[in-house]
Amino acid sequence: MLHGIHVPLVTPFGPDGALDVPSLEGLAHHVLTEGAAGLVVLATTGEAALLTADERRTVIATCRKISEEYGAPLTVGVGTIGTEESVRQAIDRAVDADLLLAVVPYYLRPTDEGVLEHFAAIGAAAGVPLIVYNIPYRTGKTLRVETLLELLATEHVAGIKHCPGAIDADTLTLLAEGRGVLGGDDAFLYPMLQLGAAGGITASANVAPAAFAALADAVRDGDAARARDLHDALLPLVNALFAEPSPTVIKAVLAERGLIADATVRSPLRPPCSEVVIRALDALAGLIA
Ligand SMILES: O=C(O)C1=N[C@H](C(=O)O)C[C@H](O)C1
């Protein structure tokens, strides 16, 4: 289930700020038709923290229906700063998920042992495979590589979405010794896949699903030249999409291309500056040409 590109969908809103279900449906169909291996909802890119409980339920139900139609796995984001609430969310959302994605508890900076207990509790409660979302530059918690390997060996943990913002020594160890590592830093997807990552959860694939799917296929097929060409073509797009807080630029590009009706993001996110959006659109045009 972890192979290929899993697209963490944006959550479209109308100009009035309300959840736009038809745009969400259209985008989910689009990325799966274009070669995405799976859908991810309620992740960072989906502005999960800015949705109401009702909206989260609607997003899950909408994408569940579509993922079943395509026989593609649906990953649902869960997880908060605390174990009890994370377990509650996992139990609640597991019924409609093939995989759950739970972030390392942020801000509190618990010990590595506390983090291991946190994920063991979520995994045991949920009953569906769990992906640990390791993103130290957002959570404020850096885990030892030994802890990451222990997490991968934990019952119910299927993989780690690993986003250290670099290919560092620990990443090399993790890729060499662990199974189920997923690339989550879009700019590093190509080297992560080349070094043995199973797949990727890639926000930029909202706007270029076919190219990212082709990149994963090329690495899988051992076509190094094609993979490198695709990486070189995608990097300017990725850099533009992440030049402002994500998913503001992604939503603006999707709206410009008619893939969602409106680019609205929720506060404290703000619309991106037009120069960055133009840069992203130019990079995307270069990719499609
Ligand atoms: O939606 C996500 O979750 C993703 N998060 C990463 C981030 O938080 O920066 C980026 C990744 O492409 C998808």
UniProtKB/TrEMBL annotation:
<feature type="site" description="Part of a proton relay during catalysis">
    <location>
        <position position="44"/>
    </location>
</feature>
<protein>
    <recommendedName>
        <fullName>4-hydroxy-tetrahydrodipicolinate synthase</fullName>
        <ecNumber>4.3.3.7</ecNumber>
    </recommendedName>
</protein>
<dbReference type="InterPro" id="IPR002220">
    <property type="entry name" value="DapA-like"/>
</dbReference>
<feature type="site" description="Part of a proton relay during catalysis">
    <location>
        <position position="107"/>
    </location>
</feature>
<dbReference type="InterPro" id="IPR005263">
    <property type="entry name" value="DapA"/>
</dbReference>
<keyword id="KW-0456">Lyase</keyword>
<comment type="subunit">
    <text>Homotetramer; dimer of dimers.</text>
</comment>
<feature type="active site" description="Proton donor/acceptor">
    <location>
        <position position="133"/>
    </location>
</feature>
<keyword id="KW-0457">Lysine biosynthesis</keyword>
<dbReference type="InterPro" id="IPR020625">
    <property type="entry name" value="Schiff_base-form_aldolases_AS"/>
</dbReference>
<comment type="similarity">
    <text>Belongs to the DapA family.</text>
</comment>
<comment type="function">
    <text>Catalyzes the condensation of (S)-aspartate-beta-semialdehyde [(S)-ASA] and pyruvate to 4-hydroxy-tetrahydrodipicolinate (HTPA).</text>
</comment>
<keyword id="KW-0220">Diaminopimelate biosynthesis</keyword>
<feature type="binding site">
    <location>
        <position position="201"/>
    </location>
    <ligand>
        <name>pyruvate</name>
    </ligand>
</feature>
<comment type="pathway">
    <text>Amino-acid biosynthesis; L-lysine biosynthesis via DAP pathway; (S)-tetrahydrodipicolinate from L-aspartate: step 3/4.</text>
</comment>
<keyword id="KW-0704">Schiff base</keyword>
<feature type="active site" description="Schiff-base intermediate with substrate">
    <location>
        <position position="161"/>
    </location>
</feature>
<feature type="binding site">
    <location>
        <position position="45"/>
    </location>
    <ligand>
        <name>pyruvate</name>
    </ligand>
</feature>
<dbReference type="InterPro" id="IPR013785">
    <property type="entry name" value="Aldolase_TIM"/>
</dbReference>
<keyword id="KW-0963">Cytoplasm</keyword>
<keyword id="KW-0028">Amino-acid biosynthesis</keyword>
<dbReference type="Pfam" id="PF00701">
    <property type="entry name" value="DHDPS"/>
</dbReference>
